[in-house]
Amino acid sequence: MLLGGTTLTISAPTLEAPPGTDADVVTLVADLPVSVRLGGPGSLVAHTDGSLTVLDDAGTPVAGIAPPDSLATTRTAVPEPGRAEVTASAEEGGATSGSVVLTGAGTALAAATWGDREGGRSLAVEPTTWARTAGEAGVELLAAELGAAEPEAQSTTMLDQLTCHAIGAPDKATWNLEPWRPDVGLMSVLAARCNP
């Protein structure tokens, strides 16, 4: 599978790709053993929330896989460039005995636009649907793409605001990041509801 320009090898008892699957995103399933291996240069970073970041050989995030998501809950598929799903499940005696869904993407940033709000300049960041639920890997990929598009967004205060929105306001239409806000540390940004 190709994800973020990097080949990933995914092993599970059964893999099915739904019709119209985009090769830049993969969703895996597993309360069963699933392994992900890089098929070329670069590395994988495993996060404590179960997500994975795919790094190129220079150490730059190029893709991510969200934490496992149980198929026991109903999922709504949202068509999105750079996103697709592959489902793996185990069967015993003709019945499904377990499954897990992993969703990967090679894109986390849908748009970023500068404007004026409240006390000054503000960057309205629109994450992809995948990035809103992709945990630490989604934040890492989004921060890398945002920093490449808007270098000012790599300041500590803006990265803390980005993380705060990912944790506390993932469904907000845009995540407004302001470079003029004080650098007070992530815990204080969280306490101030992303607006220190």
- Content-based structural category: alpha+beta
Helix content: 10-25%
The unreliable regions are 12-31, 70-79, 81-89
User: What's the mean pLDDT score?
Assistant: 76
CA gyration radius, whole angstroms: 18 Å
Number of strands: 13
- Helix segment count? 4
Order of helices and strands: EEEEEEEEEEEEHHHEH
Strand content: 25-35%
Q: What is the subunit arrangement here?
A: single chain
Main sheet summary: 7 strands, antiparallel
Structural domain count: 2
Distance between the termini: 42 Å
Tell me, briefly, the overall form: globular
Supply database-style keywords.
3-stranded antiparallel sheet; 2 domains; alpha+beta; 19% helix; 7-stranded antiparallel sheet; single chain; 196 residues
Short description:
The protein is α+β, with helices and mostly antiparallel strands. The protein is 19% helix and 33% strand.
Describe the structure.
The protein has 196 residues and is an alpha+beta fold. It contains 4 helices and 13 strands. The strands form 3 sheets. Strands 3, 5, 6, 7, 8, 9 and 10 form a 7-stranded antiparallel β-sheet that branches. A 3-stranded antiparallel β-sheet has the order 1-2-4, with no helix packed on it. A 3-stranded antiparallel β-sheet has the order 11-12-13. The longest helix is centred in the last third of the chain and has 15 residues, at 135-149. The radius of gyration is 18 Å and the shape is globular.
